[in-house]
């Protein structure tokens, strides 16, 4: 039970209006004290509500009590008791005080779902802030936090600290890291109450790895025995960040033979068709590999104007061109020389 007591502070000022709020759910009684000049002044009370419109004089009832000369007490207040109450001087009909009894506007209380308070968020497992690892195996950098329903996420950062890539939940997992995995990383844990971060660096030392062998090269001789090679390189991966180079051999040779060689064999040597101006001298030979042909004139290189076409020599029919012509046929398996004397 709660009483509303309006304390008289101003005694000389008449016809005052007072608003009295009442919460009908919890308050049942209201005391209204008329603001008269003297406490002993006798007053009469009237009430009007929205239904009656006119003022009705109040008398004793079960719910309206006159505790003294100038006050009333309302008991078991209900909605229909709301309204305007006035106290007047019964002789002059001058209103001393007007009371507006209104229901207190209880603003809607928003429904709050009460979650159990989050336990404090804290890391229970974290990678070191500096980590040096090598390639070739699995590395796990786990981030774990306690604090109720916790969500832990991991990120790869750019050099400037901005987020480059979101990684899997719970930490950083690197299968056979490469030099590109060197850099900054971040773990973030949050629960409903807070968020915590941990930044760390990973430095990857990449030891070199040997590649597959290349195919064998072609035999370096096109007949008889030769060698061929194959290579492999330290590129799988290339050593980086101070990693070790490869120790395996990177070049292999082996003997090879594509076909047997055969020494030059003359198939034709002598004059072919002649015309009025020229002699045509042929020197044809076979062999593996195909033999080279070298013409000479009187034991020297041919003068330029002969216009030799390898297997056929064209000799102008002039006396000056008489002499000894030779054709040497050669390949790696052997050689021979044929001579002919020309008298023009
Ligand atoms: C109660 O308060 C609300 C919000 O302040 C307002 O919108 C509403 O009109 C008020 N009701 C009454 C009866 O005064
Ligand atoms: C940080 O670096 C990345 C790339 O390295 C770039 O895209 C980004 O704009 C940079 N952010 C800032 C704030 O400099
Ligand atoms: C590293 O990054 C460079 C540039 O993006 C790329 O060319 C290279 O292939 C990457 N290396 C590895 C092992 O992923
Ligand atoms: C925690 O972080 C995740 C991902 O960033 C986000 O979706 C979630 O809303 C966050 N939770 C809280 C309680 O902040
Ligand atoms: C190894 O490197 C050499 C020189 O760069 C190259 O010629 C060869 O093809 C490479 N071998 C392989 C197997 O990649």
From TrEMBL:
The lineage of its organism: Eukaryota, Metazoa, Cnidaria, Hydrozoa, Hydroidolina. Coiled coil: none annotated. The gene is LOC100208243. It holds the Pfam family TSP1_spondin. It comes from Hydra vulgaris (Hydra). Residues 11-97, 119-203, 264-343 form the Ig-like domain. SMART domains: IG, IGc2, TSP1. Keywords: Disulfide bond, Glycoprotein, Immunoglobulin domain, Signal. Residues 1-15 form the signal peptide. InterPro entries: Ig-like_dom (IPR007110), Ig-like_dom_sf (IPR036179), Ig-like_fold (IPR013783), Ig_sub (IPR003599), Ig_sub2 (IPR003598), TSP1_rpt (IPR000884), TSP1_rpt_sf (IPR036383), TSP1_spondin_dom (IPR044004). It comes from the Eukaryota. This is Hemicentin-1.
